[in-house]
Amino acid sequence: MSGPPDIEKAYSEYLERFTETAGDHDFGAFVKHEGRLVKKLQLDEFDSLYTEYYDLAKRYFESLDRGDTINDIVVRMLRQKATELFLTSPV
Fold this sequence. Notes:
- The protein is mainly alpha-helical.
- It has one domain (7-84).
- It contains 3 helices and 2 strands, in the order αββαα.
- Strands 1-2 form a two-stranded antiparallel sheet.
- The model has no long low-confidence stretch (mean pLDDT 92).
């Protein structure tokens, strides 16, 4: 992964993915996505979740590059956060 994310751009893309996948809903509404209930996030909620996801994914790929053993919990966390952000999981 490259440098730190542009949160405003990432949020705009998230809103597009959300609307395209789940339709038009109010902020705070829950929708079913990939078998989970997922909340439509406001910018401040998205910022913290996306930053956490980005940092976790970055550490995951750094670990792979080093040849470290990856814990299944890390993989599950990445997949869960990707689902909440309407992203395709990198793992």
